[in-house]
Amino acid sequence: MANIRAIDDGEPSKTARWLDLVGQELGLSTIFQSPVDTKILCLQRFVRLFAYGSANLIFTLLLHALDISDQKIGLFMTLTLFGDVFISFILTLFADGLGRRRVLALGAALMTVSGIVFSLSGNYWVLLAAAIFGVISPSGNEIGPFRAIEESTLAHLTESRHRTDVFAWYTLIGVSGAALGTIFCGWFVQHLQHLKGWDNIRAYRVVYTLYAALGIFKFILACLLSKKCEAEPEVKPQEPSESSEETPLLPNKPKENQSILPKIGKESLTILIKLCLLFALDSLASGLVPSSWIIYFFNQKFHVSDGTLGTIFFFTNFVSAASTLVASSVSRRIGPIKFFVLIQGILQTMVFTHLPSSIFLGLIPIPTTLPFALVFLILRHSLASMDVAPRQAFLSSVVLPSERTAVMGVVNVVKTLSQSLGPVVTGALAGANKFWIAFVLAGTMKVSYDLGILAAFASHKTQEERAEEAAHEREGHHDEEEGAVAADRRG
Fold first, then answer.
1. DSSP calls for 430-485
2. Which of 52, 263, 333, 483 is spaced 20 to 30 A from 72 at the CA atom?
3. C-alpha dihedral, 16 to 17 to 20 to 24, nearest 10°
4. Region for residue 241 given its phi and psi (left: phi exceeds 0; alpha: psi -120 to 50; beta: otherwise)
5. For residue 121, what are the contacts with CB-CB under 8 A and spacing of at least 6?
6. DSSP bridge pairs for 255
7. Of 183, 203, 73, 204, whose CA–CA distance to 138 is shortest?
8. Count helices and strands in the chain by DSSP H and E runs
9. Number of C-alpha atoms within 13 angstroms, CB side, residue 197?
10. Spatial separation of the C-alpha atoms in residues 86 and 258, rounded to whole Å
C-alpha cells in the first residue's frame, strides 16, 4: 500500500504528461475551462454552419433544376449578398445598444423564415426576396450578423492570452459543422432521389426544411445565453469641481452612456480603413469563386453526383479545419500579429502558407481530369484557413473592447459587400463558357492581398502590447525619480 501511495503521490506518468501537453498545444484545456456562454456560442456556430453547408451543396443545383440560367444564378447570389450587407450592417451597428442576445435571436428567426420559403416556393423573385431579407448563404460561408457579434462576445468573455485558442476552436467547430452538413446533404439528397416519385427539386427542398428547423434550434440557443454576453456600458467619470457648500460629501455615481450608436476612435478608424481595403480585395476574389460556384463547376465539367460532391467537400472542409489547430499552436508561440502576417505567405521561409493557396486556386480549372483538379482543390483548402483564427485574434486586439462589435461588423459588411460583386461576374463568365477566368482572377487578387497585408501590418502592435510598453515606461520614470530623490538626500 505504501508503494501504491508513493506512486499515486509521485510525478505524473509519461502518458499523463503527454496528454496534458497535447491538450495545451491543441487548446483543449482552454476551451474546456471556458465559460458556458463560450460553449453555447461555439455550438451556435456549429449548428449554423451545418445548415449553411447543407444548403450550400444544393443551392446552385436547385436554381439550375428550376431552369434558371447561369447569369440569373450569378445575379441571384450577388443580390443575396447585397441584402446581407444591409441586414448585417444595421444589426451589428446597434447590437451592443439593443442587446447582443436579441440580435442573435432575431438573426436565427430570419434564418428560419428563409428556410421555410425555399422549401415551399419555386418562383425566382419570391426566393430572391427570401434570400435578400432573410438569411441564406449562397457561398456556404458566414452570412448575416452572427459572426461579428459572436467574435466580439468571445473576445469580451476571454482573456487576451487565451483568445487565439478560443478563436481557433470557434473556427474549427464552424468548419467541422459545414463539413458534416455537406456530406450529410450529399448522401441524404442522393438517397431521396432514388425513392419512387422523388425528383431533384423535391429532394432539395427537404434540405431547406431541415435548414428552417436548425434556425429554430439556433433561436433557442440564443435565448440560453446569459447577461454576461452583453457589452458593458461605457462609464463616464464625473468631472472634478471646486468644493463649495453645495458640493455633496459623497460624489454622485457616474452616469452610464445610454446611446445605442457605437464610437470608434481615430486610431482604430485608421486601422479599420486599412483592413477594409485589404479585406475588400480578398473578399472580391472569394466572391468570384465561392464554394457554391466551385460545386457547380465540378458538377458541370466532371458530372459528379451529389453524394460524391458531398464527400469531396466534406474532405476539403476537414482539411481546412485541421489546419486551424496548427495555426493556433504556432500563433501561441510567436503572437497573433506576427503570425497573422506570417501566415499570409510572405515572410521569407514561411511563404508556404496562404500565398501558395492563392496559386492553387488559380490552377483548379486547368486539369481535364477529376483527380488532378481535386489535387489543386485539396492543396488550396489545406492552406487557405490557416490565417483565420490569428486574424480574428489580431482584429480583436488592435481595437478597444467598446469598439469591437462595431469594427468587426463594419469589416464583415465590407467583406460581404465586396464578395457580392463576384458571383454575377462568374455567372456571366460561366454562361459564356469562360468559367476558368474566374479562378485565375481570384488567385491573382488574393496574391495581391497577401502582399498588402505584409506591407501594412508587419510591425503593428496590439492594445495589450502598447499598454505593457506604457507600463514599463511609467515604471522606468518612477525608478529614475526615486533614484534622483535618493541622490539628493545623500547630497
1. HHTT-HHHHHHHHHHHHHHHHHHHHHHHTT---HHHHHHHHHHHHHHHHHHHHHHH
2. 52
3. -170
4. beta
5. 127, 130
6. 236
7. 73
8. 22, 2
9. 0
10. 24
- Cβ proximity of 449 and 285 under 8 Å: yes
**Angle (nearest 5°) at CA 205 between 203 and 207:** 85
- 377 burial level (CB within 10 Å; 0-12, 13-18, 19+): buried
DSSP structure class, residue 236: E
pLDDT digits (tens, 9 = 90+) for 64-104: 999 999 999 999 988 888 887 777 777 777 777 788 899 89
pLDDT of residue 165: 79
Q: CB of 389 within 8 A of CB of 327?
A: yes
H or E stretch at 235: strand 235-236
Four-residue CA torsion sign, 394, 398, 402, 406? negative
CA distance 168 to 20: 18
Q: Are 358 and 450 in contact (CB under 8 A)?
A: yes
The set of cell numbers assigned to 341 is 502576417
pLDDT at 415: 83
The grid coordinates listed for 472 are 514599463
- Of 31, 299, 26, 55, residue with least CA distance to 178: 55
Query: If phi over 0 gives left and psi between -120 and 50 gives alpha, with beta otherwise, what is residue 299?
Result: alpha
Q: Please, what is the Cα angle at 391 between 385 and 397, to 5 degrees?
A: 160
Parallel, antiparallel or unpaired: strands 235-236 and 255-256: antiparallel
Q: Say how far apart CA 401 and CA 438 lie, in whole Å.
A: 39
Q: Is the pLDDT of residue 202 over 60?
A: yes
Q: Which residues contact 15 (CB under 8 A, 6 or more apart)?
A: none
Phi, psi (5° rounding) for residue 156? -70, -35
- What's the CA angle centered on 288, arms 282 and 293, to 5 degrees? 130
If residue 3 lies in a helix (H) or strand (E), which one and from where to where?
helix 2-9
Residue 442 phi, psi (nearest 5): -65, -45
Q: Is the pLDDT of residue 256 over 50?
A: no
Cell of 124: 425566382
Whole-structure pTM value:
0.69
Q: What is the DSSP letter of 142?
A: -
| 352, 382 contact by CB (below 8 A) | no
What distance separates the 2 farthest-apart alpha carbons in the chain? Answer: 103
Higher confidence at residue 427 or residue 347? 427
Q: Which residues, 6+ apart, have CB-to-CB distance to 346 below 8 Å?
A: 355, 450, 451, 453, 454
What is the C-alpha separation between 190 and 58, in angstroms, rounded? 11
Cell numbers that stand for 398 in this block = 488592435
CA 305 to chain centroid, in Å, comes to: 29
The cell for 7 is: 506512486
With bands split at pLDDT 50, 70 and 90, how would you rate the model's confidence at 266?
confident
Write the DSSP assignment of 181-219 as a string of letters: HHHHHHHHHHHHHTSTT--HHHHHHHHHHHHHHHHHHHH
